[in-house]
Please model this.
Amino acid sequence: MKLQDQVALIVGGARGIGATIAHTFSNEGASMVLVDLEKMKPELNAVAQTISQQGGNAVAISADCSDDRQVNNLVDETVRRFGKIDVLINSAGFRGPLVAVTEISDKEFDEVILYNLKLVFLCCRAVLKQMVKQKSGSIVSISGTAGREGMAMRGSLCAAKWGVVGLTQTIAKEYGPHGIRANIICPGGMDEPDLREMYAERAKSLGMTFKELENQILALTPLRKYAKHEEVANAALFLASSDSSHTTGESLNVSGGRLMS
Model:
C-alpha cells in the first residue's frame, strides 16, 4: 500500500474531490482526519462512517479553516490523535461571482480570496510547523484551470488560484531542505452537477447557451471529456506518496489536455 501508516489531513473532505481522495487514500492504508464546515457535517460524517465500515480509519471534524484559531486547534487535535501529519490535502474552495471584473464587489472579492487562498495559507502554515518537526511531509492543493490561465467572468477566482500556485512554489523552495514537498493539481472541468450549474450561469453572463459554452470548452480539451473525481484522486495519491519523492513545486494538470506545460 502506498500510504501505509501515513496520516492525512483532508480539508474539504465532505464531498466531491475531497471525499474521493479520502476513499482512495484509505484504500492505500492511510488514516485520516476529514474536515469541512459545520453545515456539511452530515455529508462529512457519512464519508468517515463509510470508510470505517470498510475497515479504514477516518475521523470527521467540523471546522472553518478560514479561521486561524480553528485551524491551529484542528492541527493540534490531529497530532494528539495520531502523533503526526504526513499529508495535507487542501480541497476546499469557493467559486465566487461569475461577472466581469468591474462588477465584482469588494465583499465578493474578499470572500473568494479568503476561502481559496488565505484558507490554504492558514492550513499550510499550521501543518508546516508539525512537518518541520518530523522532517517530512507532502502538501497537495487543488487549483484548476483558473490557476493557470485568465478566464472571462472569473477574475476573483483566477486571482486566488494563481496565488495558491505562487504560495505552493514558495513553500516548495523554503521547506524542501526540511524534507517537505508541496505540489498542486489543476483539474479541468469536473464531471459533476456543480460544474453544469456554473456553466449555465457563466453562459448566461456571456450571452451564450449552455450547450454553446460546453461545446466551446470541450473543443479546447483534446480528450473531449470532463475529469472524473477518481482521476484527480489518483493524481493526489501520486503526489502524496513516495512515487513522487523527487517532485515538488509542480502543477500537475488533470485537464484532458486543456492545460499543457
User: Anything to note?
Assistant: The chain has one domain: 7-190+228-254.
